[in-house]
Amino acid sequence: MIFWTVMYTEIYLLTKSIWPIVLMHTTEDALVNPHIFEGYIQVAQGKEFLVSPTAGIITTFLYLIVGLLLRIKRKKQLMRRTSQSTLITIMDH
User: Fold this and answer.
1) Source organism's superkingdom (predicted)?
2) Neighbour-count burial of 49, counting CB atoms closer than 10 A to its CB (0-12 exposed, 13-18 middle, 19+ buried)
3) Confidence class for position 14, pLDDT limits 50, 70, 90
4) Percent share of the chain, pLDDT over 90
């Protein structure tokens, strides 16, 4: 679950709000977990470590990839803002 931190942190930094994270986590807890516990989603025995929707390696790496993509997006936005403010500062002088 530590890989999820990257995604949740980037969402917070992009939105400047904790509420999208709270909603995402609540939705996951309300929709995915009950389906697993009640048997609607079944993972083949011995494959849980790989494909479990809540803690599988594949799922975890998907969260990490989404987090890293959001980080790239945020960094690009920051670079654009920084270069625009630098340009405005240069033009003001």
Assistant:
1) Bacteria
2) exposed
3) very high
4) 40
Domain layout of the chain by residue ranges: 4-92
The SS3 assignment for 2 reads coil
* DSSP calls for 13-63: HHHS-SHHHHHHHHHIIIIIHHHHHTTSS---TT-HHHH-TTT-HHHHHHH
How many Å apart are CA 66 and CA 51, to the nearest integer?
Answer: 17
Q: d(Cα 59, Cα 63) in Å, to the nearest integer?
A: 6
Backbone angles phi, psi at 2, to 5 degrees: -65, -25
* CA dist., res. 93 & res. 11, Å (int): 36
